[in-house]
Amino acid sequence: MSRPSADLKEYKKLLPYIARYRYQYIFGLVCLIIVDAAQIAIPQFIRSAVDLISSGDFQLRKIIMLCLYMTGVMAVVSGGRFLWRYFINGSSRRIEAQLREDLYNHLQKLSWDFYQKNKIGDLMARSITDLHAVRMAIGMGIVALFDFVFMSTAILIIIFVQDARSALVSVIPLPLVSALILLFGNLVGGKFRAAREAYSKLSDNAQETFAGIRVVKSFVKEWWFIKKFADSNDDYRKANMELVRLFGFFFPFIQFLSGLTVLIMLAIGGMRVINGLMTPGSLVAMFRYLNMLIWPLMGAGFMVNMIQRGAVSLGRVNEIFNTPPSIMDSENLACAEACVLSVLDRMSANVPALELSGLTFSYNGTNTALDGISLKINRGEWLGIMGRTGSGKTTLIKTFTRMVDPPKGSVRVFGVDVRDWPLEELRKLFAVSPQDSYLFSDSIANNISYGYDGGGMSNATASNAVVVEKAVVFASLDKDLALFQHGKDTLVGERGLTLSGGQKQRTAIARAVIMDSEFLILDDSLSAVDNETERKILEALRNERKGRTTVIISHRVSTLKYADKTLVLDGGKMLEYGSPEQLSAQGGFYSRMAAFQKLEPQETQNV
Questions:
Q1: Is residue 275 pLDDT above 50, yes or no?
Q2: CATH number of 8-321, picked from 1.10.3210.10, 3.40.710.10, 1.20.1560.10, 3.40.640.10
Q3: Which of 515, 556, 508, 564 is nearest to 535 (CA)?
Q4: In this model, does residue 461 exceed pLDDT 50?
Q5: How far apart are CA 498 and CA 507, in angstroms?
Q6: Which strands make up the sheet holding 411-413, listed edge to edge?
Q7: Is pLDDT of 577 > 60?
Q8: CA angle 372, 373, 377 (to 5 degrees)
């Protein structure tokens, strides 16, 4: 992703969210203005009380009445503070929650290539800490802005009305304060951006280390990852210390300049009181107003800080929102609807279930991953795919489900171009057990039921328990589960860390089989399974999936012998294609692999 700048235009993204809570914001701001007005009124009561006392001729009843008025005003301040916090801060938190939900939904829609380019740790930082900064900007940032505008303006008007000469001299340091606030805003945006990027890098390091902890421990490289994390942590500390130094100078200096205004007022106002040009109460009220002016000035610094931080963070979040999915539904909605409506008719007609016509595909426009592949698979047939590592096997099956977009007209499912299918309907036709056998941090039963339309990750209950049990037996997992203390309710840990490679593969197979889909794709999903278990699974597939199409990628000839047709790829091109018997008789790559694998058991036995 490109490096976002602290551009206030980023806040346009929030206008629909703020509009949704506009009445809460308006009511909260009204309460805030009432609180500010009440606070500004308090020095006037103090002025009256001091002037009464200094006159030497006063009644206690008047002082008590002034105290009661002040108590009532302070009650209004307390109640108003609660209300503006409830409405403004509450709305900002609701917007943050909605933004996070919308961001998560958008991330779900983005294609797999987006996740190839962006690290998970960085995406998590944007989804959590950056949205927190946005919430502060549209919550306390707005409060600080209104406090600065309303209170500063009101206080300056009042002190000039009370004594213009003293006020004019006292506010001499204020233009310097304004200049510092503008300078502070320009500096804090860049430094906060550097801190956010350092945090993303720190998050990336932690996520990658813990995700690959098994490899880290296997290679005894804990020390190296500790050092790598320490370096990232140190960079994050240094970036934040830049901000700390900036704040450490700015806010004390603002307080110093604000103190100068009080000092000037003490000198000028004191002389005017001595000369009878100002009452003692007015001088005390002026002190009070100047002290109250410190918060709006400080608040202006906080406001600039929060708004700049929010702009940087929102820019990072908007980068994700502004990234469209690289693979989307066809714009031809009429054709898409026709695909869904006619699929049953097409299944029963003499139409190939899967047809490739000169399929050529390249990831980056230069290196060709697939080159001119053409074949037809009828419904109910098995297609085996074999080839050296990097020959394009996994890329090929990705074109079936549009995980990558094939050229128009090169891949058809039941006679319809895959690019004309609605994505959701197309992918419902396919159940895939991928190479990496990814499992969620949940129970085995929940991982399996994830693929079941009647269940879900948290719904492996009586409604689908029978289906889950059948899938467990189907994938030859029943004997393994009998050895676990909690059976199919055993938690597998993150990414299935607590299971063996074969157990993970069979769990992934059960998850795919339970979908009972039109197409089943096993992408080298039996590589960690012994020959006897593999035979049982494949025979079960043969019996249970009659009339539906299966695609198996494997390096084992013993696996591919079940296929009706086998495709051999080499460098993305069709090297061989035919039945296992035909390929065995040709003396090519398939035949050589069959002979080599036939020798392996004998060699092992002789050792």
A1: yes
A2: 1.20.1560.10
A3: 556
A4: no
A5: 13
A6: 368-377, 354-362, 411-413, 416-417
A7: yes
A8: 155
